[in-house]
Design a protein that fits this description.
Elements: H1 8-30, H2 38-41, H3 48-51, H4 57-79, H5 86-102, H6 108-112, H7 138-144, H8 148-155, H9 165-186, H10 191-203, H11 210-221, H12 223-226, H13 258-298, E1 319-321, H14 323-329, E2 338-341, E3 345-351, E4 357-363, H15 367-380, E5 391-397, E6 400-406, H16 413-419, H17 424-442, E7 448-450, E8 459-461, E9 467-469, E10 476-478, E11 485-486, E12 491-492, H18 498-503, E13 505-506, H19 508-524, E14 529-531, E15 537-539, H20 540-546, H21 565-578, H22 589-605, E16 635-636
Parallel strand pairs: 1-5
Antiparallel strand pairs: 2-3, 3-4, 4-6, 5-6, 7-10, 8-9, 11-13, 12-16, 14-15
Helix pairs in contact: 4-10, 4-11, 4-13, 5-13, 8-9, 9-10, 17-19, 17-22, 19-21, 21-22
């Protein structure tokens, strides 16, 4: 029987086909596997991306990108690898995208629609070396730029960034600053890869949990609000929360089928489409920053009001507002939003697009006041303390200058004392808060910051009663190893240190004196400058020294029902030490703080009630008339008291 088989000529193509298949199998077996924890990272993507596909389009694109970055950060922490090699990156983007589709995290119809997620894929955009800033090792990122400030402002906060608007703004600016530093290091202007490298470097040492990193993602999304409120209503899926995810549709093929590869391509397109989306957002941010720089530059053309400065004002951790943004926040600086007016300018209540309320101080257009504006920004930008008001940002344009601070709904201490609604314990807490702020300022390693204008109107109260020191327009830095600096006398009448006033040499002791005056006001409820029985005026310091009977002779009559004589006397004696005529006789603010904390501890442990109602009845400096009603004196640069002995 003749054996049947395949002729040699016909067998050759068949053998070549087998060889090709074998090579493909070998190539497929050698393909790099993705080392990322895809399952863990994709938990960042909210359920709304599937259930509310239309409403959450922008947010879904952003979340897919963020979850990929989260996986990269976790892997970088374990291995030191920043961006993956090209083959591995291609595998990861494909696996990552197809997994999101299979798990029902991203609805296929969204990816197939004509929306912004449906863009051509290019996974190697995530590969090491494919673009500037995409380093293969995380150590290379650290070598290129210092990211310590970003790590501190973005990862080391006690609360999530979405719960603390001021920390969020500081983090946003730190990330932008780090990205621009990478521009300089790589001589490029590619926002997306440099932004990814900055984010990776900032978070790699902390390995955040999903909730904390999600808050960072939401904070970064808020940049959209700062460039014109572009679609921010659709960034986060709206409530109510959608029902649990259904099983992936049966019509979807598995990833092992030919249709699965099509889904992988679509989903991969979505990831790279997100890169384009983020690039678009980054372009807007870049345009915004360039607009800010033009705003800063425009000041130099306003010769009438320009105050020369040696270096540019700090921007790190601060938001640079335009005047149009501030007008929008205050309804055109409407009078109904006016909170008050001081020597430097008017203060308005403003509302940012995020809903955050702020206090906007619009600076008077006088050369001296603009000098105070520059000084305040330079000083406050370096300060971070819970007992100091937080500077959110500023506006520096030829059209006007403004400082934007956190809003303190409790008003200032001066108004609270006038209302008479501060019990003794609350006054002690306020004194302790201000003492803590001053102790911090005086012990800064780069030089003590002397406030030079400590008074009740510059002490602001939060809704919970916490006090914060504000207004650094006349502050002065005393270099390390130096006891004082010679300068023009500035401050407010009644609070000026007599030694500083006479010699023009400011030191930390000047703040101690002013604080002592404020302590006397907390005890008496009076002005810093009071009237005498004859119709003249004298400082509260001189009036307090003139009375006999110590603290109980001058105490605010509104406190008589709750004070104990011991705590009053101890605070009175502390105030007297603070207002000693010579600076070397006064205590340090750290010691003042220690005494106040001790007094407060005793008061909190003692039942409320007076030691003697008669003993606590206040009398005036002559022993008969009570201290007059209080209120702060008007500000002045060098106005002496009418009583020379008080200085």
């Amino acid at each position: 029987m003749r054996r049947r088989g395949i002729p040699c000529a016909a067998a050759l193509p068949f053998l070549l086909l087998l060889l090709l298949l074998l090579l493909l199998c070998v190539a497929g077996g050698a393909a790099a596997s993705c080392p990322y924890d895809i399952d863990g990272a994709t938990r960042i993507i909210p359920t709304g991306c599937y259930a509310n596909a239309t409403a959450a389009t922008t947010g879904c694109c952003w979340y897919v990108f963020a979850s990929y970055m989260y996986a990269a950060i976790r892997y970088a922490n374990l291995t030191g690898t920043a961006f993956l090699p090209e083959a591995t990156a291609r595998t990861c983007t494909t696996d990552f995208s197809s997994y999101a589709v299979r798990q029902g995290l991203v609805v296929p119809s969204l990816l197939l629609s004509g929306d912004r997620c449906n863009l051509a894929g290019d996974p190697i955009k995530f590969a090491a070396g494919s673009r500037p800033c995409q380093f293969s090792k995380i150590s290379d990122v650290f070598s290129a730029v210092d990211l310590s400030n970003g790590t501190r402002l973005c990862t080391a906060t006690r609360r999530n960034l979405t719960d603390d608007q001021f920390s969020c703004v500081a983090c946003q600016n730190a990330v932008i600053a780090a990205t621009f530093a990478l521009f300089d290091a790589t001589r490029s202007k590619e926002m997306v890869p440099c932004g990814m490298a900055a984010t990776m470097g900032i978070w790699v040492s902390t390995v955040p949990d999903i909730g904390r990193f999600r808050s960072y993602v939401l904070c970064m999304v808020q940049i959209l609000e700062n460039v014109g409120n572009l679609g921010t209503g659709n960034i986060i899926p709206s409530s109510p929360r959608p029902p649990p995810l259904p099983s992936p549709p049966a019509s979807l093929p598995s990833s092992s089928s030919g249709g699965g590869s099509r889904i992988a391509k679509i989903a991969a397109g979505s990831v790279s489409g997100v890169v384009i989306l983020v690039a678009g957002v980054s372009f807007l941010v870049l345009a915004l920053i360039r607009r800010r720089k033009r705003s800063l530059a425009s000041v130099t053309t306003d010769l009438e009001f320009t105050v020369p400065i040696d270096r540019p004002l700090p921007t790190e951790g601060l938001y640079i507002f335009t005047m149009s943004e501030l007008k929008q926040a205050t309804s055109g600086f409407h009078s109904r939003n006016l909170l008050g007016e001081g020597g430097a300018g008017k203060v308005y209540l403003g509302t940012l697009p995020s809903g955050q309320q702020v206090a906007i101080k619009r600076i008077h257009r006088k050369k001296r006041k603009l000098g105070e504006f520059y000084r305040e920004v330079e000083v406050v930008a370096k300060l971070r303390h819970r007992k100091l008001t937080t500077l959110v940002g500023y506006c520096l344009q030829s059209k006007g200058h403004a400082l934007v601070y956190e809003y303190m709904p409790g008003g200032n201490l001066s108004a609270a004392l006038s209302r008479g609604d501060l019990p003794w314990r609350r006054r002690l807490l306020i004194a302790g808060d201000v003492a803590e702020a001053l102790a911090y300022l005086h012990d800064l390693p780069d030089g003590a910051v002397v406030h030079r204008d400590v008074k009740p109107t510059n002490v602001l109260l939060a809704g919970d009663g916490t006090a914060k020191l504000s207004d650094f327009g006349v502050s002065k830095v005393v270099p390390p190893g130096t006891s004082h600096v010679s300068t023009e006398v500035k401050g407010t009448r009644g609070y000026l240190d007599p030694e500083y006033f006479g010699a023009g040499k400011v030191s930390k002791a000047a703040d101690v004196y002013s604080f002592g005056v404020m302590l006397l006001q907390l005890l008496t409820g009076t002005k810093a400058v009071v009237e005498t029985p004859s119709g003249g005026q004298q400082s509260i310091v001189q009036a307090a020294r003139a009375v006999s009977g110590g603290a109980t002779a001058i105490v605010d009559h509104r406190l008589a029902a709750e004070c104990d004589g011991d705590s009053l006397e101890e605070v009175f004696q502390l105030a007297c030490r603070c207002v000693k005529p010579y600076k070397d006789e006064r205590p340090r603010m750290a010691d003042v703080l220690s005494v106040l904390r001790g007094v407060l501890a005793v008061v909190e442990a003692t039942p409320v009630g007076p030691t003697s109602g008669a003993a606590l009845t206040p009398v005036g400096p002559t022993g008969g008339a009570p201290f007059p009603s209080r209120g702060d004196s008007p500000p002045t640069t060098a106005e002496p008291s009418t009583s020379s002995s008080s200085f």
